[in-house]
Amino acid sequence: ISAVEDLTVAGDNARRLGSFAGLTESVLAAACSRVGQKVLHLDRRNYYAGNWASFTFNSLLSWIQEYKAQQEMPSTESDQAWVGKIEEGEDMLPLSSVDSSIINLEVFSYASEESEDEEVVTPSVANSFPKDSEAANEEPSGSSVEPQHSDSPGDRTQGAAEPPKQETEPSEACKNRQMPETQQSNQSEESDKQEQPITRPAEAPIELNKRITYAKLLKEGRRFNIDLVSKLLYSRGSLVDLLIKSNVSRYAEFKNVNRILICRDGRVKQVPCSRADVFGSKQLNVVEKRMLMKFLTFCLDFEQHPEEFQGFSEKPFWEFLKSQKLTENLQHFVLHSISMADQEILTEEGLKATQHFLQCLGRYGNTPFLFPLYGLGEIPQCFCRMCAVFGGIYCLRHSVQCLVVDKESGKCKAVIDTHGQRISCNHFVVEDSYIREEQRTKTSHRQISRAVVITDRSVLSYESDQQISLVTVPPLEFSSPAVRAVELSSSSMTCMPGTYLVHLTCPASGSAREDLAPVISNLFHVPNSSGEEPMQGTEKPLALWVMYFNMRDTSGLDSSCYSLPSNVHVCTGPDASLGCDYSIKLAESMFNQLLPDEEFCPPAPNPEDIIYDGDGAPGEGASFEETNHAERSGPEGEGQPQENGQPSSESSEPAESTDSVAPETNTESKVQISPTEE
Amino acid sequence: MHGRVKVKSTAQQEEEKRKEREKKLKVYLSARDAVFSKKSNGVLDEEALQLTQQLLSSNPDFATLWNFRREILLHLETVKEEEEMQKLYELELLFTESCLKVNPKSYGSWHHRGWVSSRLPRPDWPRELSLCDRCLSVDERNFHCWDYRRFVVKASGVPVSQELRFTDRLIGSNFSNYSSWHYRSTLLPLLQPGTPSPCRKPAHVSPTASPQTHGHRVCEEQLLKEYELVQNAFFTDPNDQSAWFYYRWLLGRAEREEMISCVYVSREGERVTVAFSKLVNAPAEGLVLVLDGQPQQVEWRSVHPLFRHSPVWLCELPPGSISDINNEHNLTVHWTEKHTHRDCALYTGRLESWCRDSATDQELFRSELSIEKTSVLQSELQSCGQLLELEPQNKWCLLTTILLMRALDPLGHERETLAHFQTLKEVDPMRSSYYSDLCSKFMIENTILKMEYAEVRVFSLSDKNLSTLCHLDQLLLVTHINLSSNQLLKLPPQFAMLHCLKVLEADNNAIENLEGLYQLPKLEDVSLRNNHISKLSTLEPLVSCPKLIRLDLRGNPITKTANIQAELAQLLPSVTDLLI
């Protein structure tokens, strides 16, 4: 749904458009824009981040409706618009207008409801979609174009079409942005306060006694940020490194994943993975503790001890684990939750995975993972903001119909958008889903099975109800893949207080429902009908709402799988793995291909070091400043240490200042990635 | 290039920063001068409060300003209502908090905070506790904060159990934290008021000790929990010493009861020798010697002029008081300060007599570890053994195993103990001398036990790699000692406690110092073959041993000295049997 256009030479007829797209595209766009390239980012969708998007509950329902509508009535291709734009010696290469990357979408609602049918959204809610979407994404939408302003989309398109307007574009975008943001700030502060873990105890008992109805989910829908892609950030992974290196980290906040859980024999247990976990674990005896620590210590520098695994280089990792005097319990932990290896993985690879996991421990917390507040969809938007700050332009609901290919050079010289506008370019970056079958030499048949479950409690209740957990569900059969679940509490700002949002992911072998329904009924209590009373004494969380879908996994494809002009670059979609490394590495390698002599995402300068032009026109730098300001007044600013770090003498509430003694580092705190963490 | 953001150059930034700093300094200096002039003029107004605040917020380590601030506040207390002061002090707390953000280890800020908290009409202690928790979550080893926290806990009367849970939490998040473990060790004894703490529990001397009450049992239960906790820590990371140190504390070093452990009386020289359970300065302890019901005026002296404090003291009775072998005498030494005493009867026809608690009676060496139920120690030894199987090279585990073995049965485990010491020296060569000394100590203890079981006065410890001598106060009654073929470098001054010693064999060592052979009234025979004695002056202490008649110096460098025979004859005229 996204197309990034990359203009290495700023010709007079060069245009820039903009839109939010997947992670790879956003990173690439930010990197190009950062080194002075003109970037136009187009997206046929009306929301950001493509398949990496986060939705509020209500906007997700709208998205589902749109999806169903599209399924029923495939849009007819109107090839007329470009006719006449093609000149002598040029060829036309049409792009697909239908996104088929998501299939098998199914939704089930089990929350009790008085009058409404499941899956059916009241019209009023559906209509309010763009606004809700904005509310959820308020902060990162910073330098973007607001789709809900009645005139916005058209405006933007025009602006993009007219070169003289280019320079004022960003500032205008900023002005547009500011209005909704200030309007929302009160509202969101309020909601933020309610979500503060500190005030929750008072609220919690009421929440517990009251069953969550479907109406309640709709009413509180804007508190949800439901990601289509579920991933975590390895604290020493390439995404975190990039966020630090590029200073993009300033646009986002993170929470540590608190627990690594494993589901074994139908019971959920905590996996002790850090030293403190092992020490505190009640399920391991002291000898097991020693054996586990000994093994993990060995994994940290296993390369130094090749003799230990020599005989196993051709054997699977699990066989090596068996040989290591580890009890069955420990083998299970290491294999599924620490190395997160599947059954076939070879010993050295398994050791490497374990090592990576361990190296990520302790950087920000007791698990190797971070999760972005407000959902993973924040991350592409952070890079989009970076891109916009350096002059990139974004357009939503604005798609490219076809490419204009120069017959002589075989290169793509321009694109024609759905309005029939011709926009020239030097490079064209496009998401896989835009490519028609005719241009594919090889089709990926891999799919990812996904499920999203809203539940009423955690799969493993513990002291705090604000945990973020990674749950591994090892396969029942030897050959099938493990299912990975990420359970988010309301402290991650992705669901309403009193609920948990669980993302399940695995490589597909059938439809998402076939793959994941057994796991869901294993982990949760799934009622037979909506509103059914849960069984007495059941310990399992109640599934309130379940969505299944399959997402195409194009990560195995490379340029040889497409027959396209050499300056058209295809971004493959998210892969099935837990980390984001695949997409980041792809962006970096594409960047190096586009601009071999430029640095990939050098640190963005501090706002105070930017020189503003004398003519008083707020340049890109101004948007930086405003961005920062917006961050302060935005809801996230509330909990930020530096915010509370204001001279406390100004504060009249002692309790508040007590909270502000120092940057929080407890498990409930947010994490701000910065270079100093190194 | 077009479209790029223009960024200031480093030089530009530097220049701007420099100017900024200059400006700051100017403001700072003028504020400082203003404060100082107010201070010298005794102006204690709110403006001064403002100014000091301004200065301290940029430099919270300016002690004079904190003091001035307190002066002002004390003055304001005299002119303002309590309500106003409450507000003022609350602002003060907020202010110190902001200073602590600048420097979380600022002595001045923490002290001021403590001062303010103690002046505050209505202190909010929970808030202070949560401040400490926050601070410790950032830096769990901030000792300023630990100190302040203890102050708050004391002032607000936080229950011990709650504090124990607090340490649970800290240890749970990172057990390599001495502060938390140590705090725990101060809390446990308080957990059950009146319960003897593991470290203070006196050694159980008599089996008829007063029946230990309910409280003791609870304490032991808690101890078992502690053992479990600390075992989790050292099994998780056996190389982390904080847990091992805590474990050593748990196993506990019992303090010996203060008592007179031995009284020895000899008709010859009419001398009384007294051994105490600890080092004392006898003349200052209010000792009273009663002979046949008559308090005696005696002068106590230590065994060696080097010692002002010593476990062994002696005195001479007035001439003629016990010299007649046909008389029976009853002697009592009172240690008035400690309300203890020891009797000793000198019977007719006996030249000497003594009364003592033997090392075995006192379970002296066993009590290096406090006496818990043997079964508990036994299971501790088992888990250490388990860990040792997994980590045969771990020095902490080896050492703890040795200590446990000694606590349980020092003689029974002697062979294993020696083997473990050998491993220790190999895995930790940096501390091999320490291990040698410790091993020597244990060997001496074992030999003392064996000697006492055999009821002899002969102490023989040859060829055991002794590197040092200790427990010499326990050898007060020994008449024959054999220390040959060890690695001794000297006979230390403490050796002078062996007041009954007649024969000393210390061949084949590396002795080059004989300080301890001082005023040994019965010493007759000294054999020092193959040692490192090279100077005549080394032998000088022997001059004070009146009965010395045989001296063997063969194989020492000194024998190479010219004219040595004559010089020795002159130095030690009593020696008739000189072997060189």
Estimated helix fraction of chain B? 40-55%
Distance between the termini of chain A: 36 Å
Number of helical regions of chain B = 17
Q: Which ranges of chain A are low-confidence, i.e. pLDDT below 50, for 5 or more consecutive residues? A: 5-20, 115-209, 614-668
Number of helices of chain A: 22
User: Which class best fits the helix and strand makeup of chain B?
Assistant: alpha/beta
Mean pLDDT of chain B: 86
Average predicted confidence as pLDDT of chain A: 73
Strand portion of chain B: 5-15%
Write the CATH homologous superfamily of the largest domain in chain A: FAD/NAD(P)-binding domain
How many strand segments of chain A? 23
Mind explaining what this structure looks like?
The complex is a heterodimer of chains A (678) and B (580). Chain A is an alpha+beta fold and 678 residues long. Chain A has 3 domains: 2-108 and 128-186 and 375-444 and 558-594, FAD/NAD(P)-binding domain; 196-256 and 368-372 and 449-552, 2-Layer Sandwich (Guanine Nucleotide Dissociation Inhibitor, domain 2); 275-360, Guanine Nucleotide Dissociation Inhibitor, domain 1, CATH 1.10.405. Helix content of chain A is 33%, strand content 17%. Chain A has 22 helices and 23 strands. An 8-stranded mixed β-sheet of chain A has the order 5-21-17-20-19-18-9-10, with helices on both faces. Chain A has a 5-stranded mixed β-sheet with strand order 12-2-1-16-22, sandwiched between helices. Chain A has a 4-stranded antiparallel β-sheet with strand order 4-13-14-15, with no helix packed on it. In chain A, a hairpin with a 4-residue loop joins strand 14 (412-417) and strand 15 (422-424). Chain A is globular. Mean pLDDT of chain A is 73; it is low at 5-20, 115-209 and 614-668. With 580 residues, chain B is an alpha/beta fold. Among the domains of chain B are: 24-158, Protein prenylyltransferase (Serine Threonine Protein Phosphatase 5, Tetratricopeptide repeat); 260-357, Rab geranylgeranyltransferase alpha-subunit, insert domain (Immunoglobulin-like); 456-579, Leucine-rich repeat, LRR (right-handed beta-alpha superhelix). Chain B is built from 17 helices and 15 strands. Chain B has helices spanning 10-40, 46-58, 63-79, 82-102, 107-119, 125-138, 143-156, 160-173, 178-191, 214-236, 241-251, 359-362, 374-390, 395-408, 414-427, 432-453, 564-571, and strands spanning 260-266, 271-280, 287-291, 294-296, 301-302, 310-316, 329-335, 340-346, 352-356, 458-460, 480-482, 503-505, 525-527, 550-552, 577-579. In chain B, strands 10-11-12-13-14-15 form a 6-stranded parallel β-sheet. A 5-stranded antiparallel β-sheet of chain B has the order 5-6-2-1-9, with no helix packed on it. Chain B has a 4-stranded antiparallel β-sheet with strand order 4-3-7-8, with no helix packed on it. Chain B starts with 9 loop residues before the first helix and ends with a strand. Chains A and B meet through helix 10, helix 11 and helix 22 of A and helix 4, helix 6, helix 10 and helix 13 of B. Chain B: Keywords: Leucine-rich repeat, Phosphoprotein, Prenyltransferase, Repeat, Transferase. Chain B: It comes from Electrophorus electricus (Electric eel). Chain B: Its EC number is 2.5.1.60. Chain B: Belongs to the protein prenyltransferase subunit alpha family. Chain B: One of its GO terms (molecular function) is zinc ion binding. Chain A: It holds the Pfam family GDI.
